[in-house]
Task: structure prediction
Amino acid sequence: MSAGTAANSKGQAWFCSTGLPSDVVVDVEDMTFHLHKFPLMAKSRKLHEIITEQEANFTRNAVDDRTDSEEIREENETVTAAVVAEKQSSHVIRFPDFPGGPKTFEMAAKFSYALKIELSSSNVASLRCAGEVLEMTEEYCEDNLISKTERFLSQTVLQSLGESIETLKSCEHLMPLVEYVGVAERCIDSISAKVSAMDPSLFSWPENESTPRRMADTGRATAGGDWWLEELTLLSPLLFNRLIMAMKGQNLNEQIIENCLLRYAKKHISGINRTTRKLQPPSKPSEIDQKELLETIVTNLPEQTYSRSPTAVKIFFGMLRTANILNASDNCKSTLEKKIGSEFEQATLDDLLMPSYSYLSETLYDVDCVHRILAQFLRRVEDRSTDLTLVGKLIDGYLSEIALDANLTPEKFYELAVALPEHARLYDDGLYRSVDVYIKAHQWITEADREKVTGVLDCRKLTLEACTHAAQNERLPLRAVVQVLFFEQLQLRHAIAGTLMATDMGPSDSERSPGTGREVVEHDERVVEGDEMTWRAAVRENQVLRLGMDSMRTRVHELERECTTMKKAIEKIDKVEPTGWRGSLTKSFGCAFKTQVCDSHEPTVVETRKGRSHRTHRRSS
Result:
């Protein structure tokens, strides 16, 4: 072939411009290649056999035609010879399923014409398969296509993690031939070996949702040390599963395997990224494929959880939500619940608000699932007091959200509220808010259910603000209000006592131990400044507490009047019916009212100070 030989394509046809008419036509899918038989036969044993067989068949048919046409007239012999010569000069070959399609065959044809081809990690697998189909072996011709691609694989692709991943991605549409030639298996082994030598501590979840993608070309920028994890998410489920199995076979660090699985799930399982708006893929996977992929990923997850981050927990919740929608196996759901329970403190309220997809449950949210996850967390929490406090706040927020559900029964609300141990909540203000919302949204429940729901509260853990609100809350049962008032009065009494103690100790400078020199002077100045600030704060707090105490006294007096009225009513009933109405009425209210119980004639702040000043005056006299 001359140096001026060139190849070009016109529409759906491809021509080799050598100045000679083509004698071989090759159809590859929708592309027609007009080539010459001698360059092709010199490199490809397969094309040599096809062309030779076609020529032999044509010669045999031509001899038969001459025998049958002995009586043809002499004037038609010239025309027949011309047609035979034209047919003999053209060979038609068809490859309906050529590996890599027309683009790969074009490169193989250029190689046959001794034109330069550019090998890369994205086309070497298809060219290796093309060499196998065309039988372009080293035995048939020296330095043939198979040997050229094999050298590139061993010397370039398999030496680089990025190149190996890129080549493995190109193997998806070359099955099963690429398995036969061993390209996919060698890429998988290369990736596993190189990943096993990495430090798992270098892998971390990106803070933002979108991570720049790192291509296999060495001249492009990378997105951190774990760029290859994002590249693996582009593999087909079949190849990805084979890679995970190979990693497990090499006893690869389980943290790396878990990271690979979670990132793949985040990209390919629908419903995980609820807040991220992305374009839908042109071919949406079926529910059966999604369910199979989900169960495969969950099965391959390590038993221990390594990815302790809010992003990982969000992915686990997304997988669990999808498992409920697709009705995945119970083992799959249970595994995900255990995974979430092991790092429940990383979850958010939005994660917990999973809709209920069961026909057996009428609640809006899947409360039973959250209860099971909480139980898993409590089994493994051990001495993680900080995590327990975080989960306590999370559950209280969840109770406030689900309390508005009209179908949430008091039993389910109560069971979830008391599932946490007592030391999980520093204060019960969040729980009180949930109880208040529930009672307000379920005004039709019985008095017994109201008392059961409010029974989850520990009035000793309510802050002064919560006690004040609860004491004025008409929706709470009477027993709960009385308990709140009692503990509110105790809190006020302790607060006032502490304030008065601080004010009494504030201005007394005579009891300080004397010092010497400049240090004593500086110390006295600091103490005086601190005492003045403490005195002002104490006075202000004392005024606030005095107002609160007065309002408290008013409310207690009102309750005393109600108790007195009820006592008189009970005495009248006892006179009329001596058979025990007192016990039934007492049982209905849950407590026995006595006048001394409601007695709250405690000395006020003013009276206390008057008494103190009087005692001081007597001592001085």
